[in-house]
Amino acid sequence: MSVALFTYGTLMVEEIMAALAGKPLPSREAVLKGFQRFRMRGEIYPGIGPATGHETRGRLYVAMDDETMALLDAFEGEQYHRQPLTVTTADGTSQAAETYLLASSFSHCRTDRPWEIEQFTSRHLTRFLVQCRRFRAKAREAKKTF
Q1: Which residues, in sequence order, are CB contacts of 91 under 8 Å at separation 6+?
Q2: Considering the entire predicted model, what is its pTM?
Q3: Is the domain covering 2-143 a CATH 3.40.50.720 domain?
């Protein structure tokens, strides 16, 4: 089965997604209306939450296989859960896609400060890529898949 996945934080960096998936994945820009991106307390990655009048720009990966989604579910952990939503692509097309939302039990970790991709890539990208590659290698060794 193949699903579309809307990403709005570290996973919207195509190099990070390729490091986790083990290959480049087809994607395009998209917008999720009615949600706002925010910084997580003490973390370098963001979350999103419902916010009237806001929109979140991100990247839509259009053909995610079950194996890659299982790896991403493990990577996101219990802090996030996948939920189907509708996004709008750059050409104005609406598309169903899943996205990782902050689990309600972690809402206390959310801040009111915005998260900026430019700040993440300039300060943390190199180290985060190393962590992603290690995660994939450990997951492959443990499960003999991905």
Answers
A1: none
A2: 0.94
A3: no
